[in-house]
Specification:
The protein is α/β, with parallel strands linked by helices. Helices cover 47% and strands 14% of the residues. Strands 1, 2, 3, 4, 5, 6, 7, 8 and 9 form a nine-stranded mixed beta sheet that branches. Helix 3 packs across helix 5. 45% of the residues are buried. Bound molecules: S-adenosylmethionine. S-adenosylmethionine (SAM) binds next to helix 12 and strand 2.
């Protein structure tokens, strides 16, 4: 099978059956027998078409009178993506995509894609700026209110590009902004550090590598097993437990530092999960904020007097960061800026996806009064 056909079949599973793009893609690539170059092409077609789904629909819908059936819709998206957002030669993008259509729709797909190809992008009337960038309106509006228009556009543009890969000295693949969060814990040899939302263990292993005694907890058994497996692979000793961060079986006021890398809406990491923008909902933010606040309260109780509490989320909403009350008995730790490309943000810090090509991240540091 060709790269385009495999991409089309994966996209149909994503579009029609709600499959997760990364989960549908991996096995399809394994089965494909394609070489590395073609695998990259399949990945770009699947992820790119999924990211640009809304924009592709706008490009196509100018030339269709009635909504196409789901399979044809997916094929038109795939064609429009190649025409508008890749360097594929026009004739190849059209003819190879048309070649995937069943005979009954071939003429229609051919006619629509030829029109898309013939119309310059800068003449398109976008229904909203967020349609052009291919996000749901609520995400564009939300980031605009959080960041202002220019930074919102910059963040959304940056999250339309494929993520870069950064690898730590010990071989663990971890985004730079996550490495900065781990560094902000400033774990020292011999300290007791608790990571209450630890899986898959990127930050917990960094803390253990700094010489701290680390207890890593995650609520999901399969995910806490990943933490243990990653620690073994890196030759690091750390204690792993499966537990709810709101009720951890750890003595109060015992930890030198506690890291809360909380579950969040993920609006800073949308480049990593191309379909995430179509799944996350605005109501998720308030629900997650409520869970985060409960986790912070429970985590704060574990910190010993004079100890540190570090909170991070890979999102950019105030509701999931600055709006959380400072835990009683703690004060924001603003002694020195954390290492990394952080912007000051209230009593915390954040990095936008366009600042340094990293994930977007928000960081709050507190110290418990002695
Ligand atoms: C942002 S991820 C953590 C990433 C991790 N710190 C790392 O660097 O690899 C959030 C984690 O919190 C876990 N989680 C969600 N709710 C939780 C809870 N109530 N208690 C503990 N862990 C929870 C999720 O399973 C998920 O693995």
């Amino acid at each position: 099978m060709t790269a385009r056909r495999i991409a089309y079949e994966v996209l149909r599973r994503v579009d029609e059956h709600g499959a997760y793009a990364n989960l549908a893609l991996g096995p399809a690539l394994e089965r494909s027998g394609l070489d590395t170059r073609d695998r990259h092409q399949v990945t770009d077609l699947v992820y790119g078409t999924t990211r640009m789904r809304r924009a592709c629909d706008v490009l196509v819908d100018r030339f269709v009178a009635e909504p196409p059936d789901p399979a044809t819709r997916t094929l038109l998206r795939l064609g429009a993506y190649q025409l508008a957002y890749t360097r594929t030669a026009t004739h190849a993008a059209v003819s190879e995509t048309v070649g995937l259509a069943p005979r009954r729709t071939r003429g229609f797909v051919n006619a629509v894609l030829r029109k898309v190809a013939a119309t310059p992008l800068d003449t398109v009337q976008w229904p909203s700026p967020w349609a052009r960038l291919s996000y749901p309106d609520w995400i564009g509006d939300r980031l605009e209110s959080e960041l202002g228009h220019p930074d919102a556009v910059g963040a959304l543009e940056a999250m339309n590009t494929a993520p870069s890969t950064t690898t730590r000295d010990d071989g663990y693949v971890q985004d730079l902004s996550s490495q900065w969060v781990a560094a902000a814990v400033a774990a020292r040899p011999g300290e007791l550090v608790v990571d209450v939302c630890a899986a898959p263990g990127g930050k917990a292993t960094a803390l253990a590598a700094a010489g701290a005694h680390v207890v890593a907890a995650d609520i999901r058994p399969a995910r806490s097993r990943q933490v243990a497996a990653n620690a073994v692979r890196l030759g690091l000793g750390l204690g792993v437990i499966t537990a709810d961060a709101t009720t951890l079986p750890i003595r109060r006021a015992s930890a030198d530092a506690v890291l809360v890398d909380a579950p969040c809406s993920g609006l800073g990491v949308l480049r990593r999960r191309p379909d995430a923008r179509w799944r996350v909902e605005s109501d998720d933010i308030s629900e997650l904020a409520e869970l985060q606040a409960r986790i912070v309260t429970a985590a704060a109780a574990l910190v010993k007097p004079g100890g540190r509490l570090v909170y991070s989320v890979c999102t950019l909403t105030r509701a999931e960061s600055l709006d959380h009350p400072v835990p009683p008995g703690f004060e924001p730790d603003q002694e020195r800026p954390p290492a990394g490309t952080w912007r000051a943000y209230g009593h915390g810090w954040r990095v936008l996806p366009q600042d340094a090509g990293t994930d977007g991240m928000t960081l709050l540091r507190y110290r418990r009064r002695a």
